[in-house]
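Field reference: sequence -> structure
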Amino acid sequence: MAETAVPLPRRPIELPILEARTRFTQLVRMASLASQVTVITDQGRPAAAIVPPDAVLSDEPSTLPKARTEHAAAGWLRRIEQVRVAVRRQHATRISELEQALTEAWGVIDHVAPRGSDRVADELRVAQRDVRQPRNMLSDGRQGGHPIA
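Structure field:
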């Protein structure tokens, strides 16, 4: 039988003053939403902390309601996945654009300096032969591809 996962206690994050200053808004929201404690250090020594409000306003240890924490985590995971999909799409589009530009450039080079007419162009062809192959062709001529993931 599978056992229920018990969440591990969250470890405090330690950040130097300058980095904490840069990420202040994010750190405050993480303290509020996920009960994250951030220890701010000054020259390596703890100087202050950003803690959830429950830890300061009550004498009891902070206990953020489980549903609120799970909701916040699910929201972050959804957003991360949306960003991941968008970046993959942008990456694929950019690769396609670059491949098109490279194909056009080699078309001009092949027109201006046909094979065997210019030693430097021939050396470039040899050096760039793996780049000039279509993405779905392997070096031995078999079908293949480069995953975008």
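Note: The CA atoms of residues 17 and 87 lie 31 Å apart.
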